[in-house]
Amino acid sequence: MDYLKILVEDIHSTVVATLDNDGKPVTRVIDIMLYDDKGIYFLTAKGKAFYEQLMEQKFIALSATKDKKSVSLRGKIQNIGSEKLDEIFEKNPYMKGIYPNDTRSALEVFRLYEATGEFFDISDPTNVTRGSITIGGAKVHTGGYFVGNNCIGCGICNSVCPQKCIDVLRPPAVINQNHCLRCGRCAENCPQRAIFKR
Asked: pTM for this structure?
């Protein structure tokens, strides 16, 4: 929920990807208006091509960044009509200027309700932080590099790691996934080939 709060309240504007009629990716900037334990909420006008893509594909990918913090999400969406529309306008007053009075009836709300993603913070370059995000019942896909049992504890992996986030006190070494850049230098330099990408 902390990551969703950052997305909605601090970053707010995201790049959202769908597919066009030719099956090619298309992006646009969309404001994420609300979040709760059921997901995140955004809206669009019923007359837009984006609306048609959302209704047909029922899936999006989004990325957002501000002040060296980023959030990426991909997952399933659902149209919830005018549910939450009044709340969105109350929490995002600039919308009243874009769609005054009853013109907001052109809009419908969508909820990203089952998704996985990642938070990434490089505001302190010597202490990069990342975290996984899940919404709904989405299955988490673990990424990154991991050390196998044939590690001999030589410490080369940590010596070449930009973030020095590998604990080599006893084999097998352990990579702190919350600080790993996933650059692969550890795997490239391991003499035992004990580091693999999941």
From this structure: 0.86
